[in-house]
């Protein structure tokens, strides 16, 4: 009787643990990237092939002679937004409770089910690790590794029984090293440098909030969610006058309904601009076009919401157009001794003024009140000498940066 009671308790505990699978982090714009570092150099040697966007927001960049089936973003509006979204996803993973502890050595044909797994020190993967989805295509696997993570040569992460790489996340607080000729699956959300050794492959993403990325003749594959629409291109460019011209093309459509064109200044708040009806059913090349007659001054971000006839949808990657007819925005004197003065065509359209030091720490921040515009002067006489960054946020969300020198 006691044995039966213990067995029932064990089964109940197992079922309870199995149902506590955590929550997938929202990568937002960072999901478009297959390889990305928020702050670090990006280097490649050999003929690496990456499907998905690549880039760095702060650091030197070199990818020749590799092949990128996607876009490259280096210190631009897209990489800046990806840095913000990746930091948010990293924090989301940090906040999640541990479902089950693991030893620091993974692999050797080890089989794991969905859960939030925690390793409290540097860890390694040796041989094969099998992740079993149990027949559930939404089975979620989260690994939280507090330290560096490395794999031995020819290691492998295998997914079975409906497990998918899109539902596997690896938070690594330290450095991530993938051994040569290994095959790794899932999304790495790291906090340190990333290096993929010769001939290794990743089915998923390798992203880090800080640290250099080094590729060596690798393959990284990160696929967008597929709808009954095969989108082969999407571009946004300046049109005639002050317009923006959006063009895209599909090679296959099945029961597709429409494309909603969405517009944003900062990648967070999106507005619907218009709708273009889809072909519906097609097995040939179909070209589409939309003209934004009145883009904002400064940065304009666009994306397509591809909607099926049953209401399901997915988003395209983000495309950016910078309107050259920007309003005047000047900070003087630069260098300065005691104060900075902002000159802008319409101060009522400025929502926030911030001053950061070179480490990113906010030194000064002032937001527009309900009934009064911001002051155009910043007192800096008590600040130490050095470089600072002035961050101007407009009411519609567009952001401008200017570097200044305090003497």
From TrEMBL:
Query: Has UniProt tagged this entry with the keyword Signal?
Result: yes
* Record-annotated Secretion system C-terminal sorting domain positions: 331-399
Q: Where is the signal peptide?
A: 1-24
Does the record carry Signal as a key word? yes
What are the alphabetically sorted keywords of the record? Signal
Family assignment from sequence similarity: Belongs to the ice-binding protein family.
Q: What is this protein called?
A: Secretion system C-terminal sorting domain-containing protein
The organism of origin for this protein = Dyadobacter arcticus
Q: What is the lineage of its organism?
A: Bacteria, Pseudomonadati, Bacteroidota, Cytophagia, Cytophagales
């Amino acid at each position: 009787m006691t044995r039966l009671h213990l067995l029932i308790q064990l089964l109940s505990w197992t079922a309870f643990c199995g149902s506590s699978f955590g929550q997938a982090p929202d990568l937002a714009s960072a999901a478009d990237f297959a390889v990305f570092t928020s702050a670090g150099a990006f280097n490649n040697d050999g003929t690496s092939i990456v499907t998905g966007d690549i880039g760095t927001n702060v650091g030197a960049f070199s990818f020749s002679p590799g092949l990128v089936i996607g876009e490259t973003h280096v210190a631009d509006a897209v990489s800046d937004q990806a840095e913000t979204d990746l930091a948010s996803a990293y924090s989301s993973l940090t906040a999640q409770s541990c479902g089950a502890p693991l030893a620091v050595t993974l692999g050797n044909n080890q089989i794991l089910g969905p859960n939030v797994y925690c390793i409290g020190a540097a860890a390694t993967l040796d041989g094969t690790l099998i992740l079993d989805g149990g027949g559930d295509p939404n089975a979620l696997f989260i690994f939280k590794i507090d330290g560096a993570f490395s794999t031995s040569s020819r290691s492998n992460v295998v997914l079975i029984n409906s497990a998918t790489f899109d539902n596997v996340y690896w938070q690594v607080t330290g450095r991530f090293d993938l051994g040569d000729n290994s095959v790794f699956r899932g999304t790495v959300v790291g906090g340190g440098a990333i290096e993929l050794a010769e001939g290794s492959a990743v089915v998923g993403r390798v992203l880090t909030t800080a640290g250099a990325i080094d590729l060596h003749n690798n393959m990284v594959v990160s696929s967008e969610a597929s709808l009954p629409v095969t989108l082969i291109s999407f571009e946004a460019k300046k049109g005639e006058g002050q317009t923006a011209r959006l063009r895209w093309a599909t090679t296959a459509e099945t029961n597709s309904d429409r494309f909603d064109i969405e517009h944003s200044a900062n990648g967070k708040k999106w507005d619907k601009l218009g709708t273009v009806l889809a072909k519906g059913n097609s097995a040939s090349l179909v070209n589409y076009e939309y003209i934004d007659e009145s883009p904002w001054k400064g940065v304009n971000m666009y994306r397509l919401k591809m909607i099926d006839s049953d209401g399901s949808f997915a988003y395209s990657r983000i495309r950016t157009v910078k309107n050259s007819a920007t309003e005047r925005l000047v900070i003087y004197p630069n260098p300065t001794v005691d104060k900075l003065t902002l000159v802008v065509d319409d101060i009522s359209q400025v929502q926030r003024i911030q001053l950061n030091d070179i480490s990113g720490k906010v030194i000064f921040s002032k937001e527009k009140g309900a009934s009064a515009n911001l002051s155009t002067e910043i007192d800096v006489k008590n600040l130490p000498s050095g470089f600072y960054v002035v961050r101007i946020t407009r009411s519609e969300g567009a952001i401008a940066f200017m570097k200044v020198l305090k003497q």
